Fold this protein.
Amino acid sequence: MSEVVLFRRDGGVAEVTLNRPDKLNAFNEEMHRELRRCLDVVEGDPELRAVLLTGAGRGFCAGQDLGDRTVGEGAEPPDLGHTLETLYNPLIRRLRRLEKPVVCAVNGVAAGAGANLALACDIVLAARSASFIQAFCRIGLVPD
């Protein structure tokens, strides 16, 4: 796995850590790709009986990295609907269908897609520092 998502086995538990602490673990395309790979491993390994999902640093996940979505002058802006349909919705559906329990440990902010990622898990453990923010209404997007 890459450095943006850390994967570790601890007995029968797959520990998956979002690892972009300098960006509050905000999603970019590489993170989506690596999370899919982690889920491939979990689904294919009968020795893994559960998943622990968390974030490195002071936040769980700040949602989409908007800096990753910038376009050059004259280029078309990214299609948020397409991004939801091709990246976020399949990830959430896959977590919900996973036949192994997923425990999410939220430290710090879980905003936008990060909050929804946490809420898609079977159990959410929230530190006192945790906050859940639905920021979509501020940009006129209702993805859920």
About this structure: The chain has a mean pLDDT of 90.
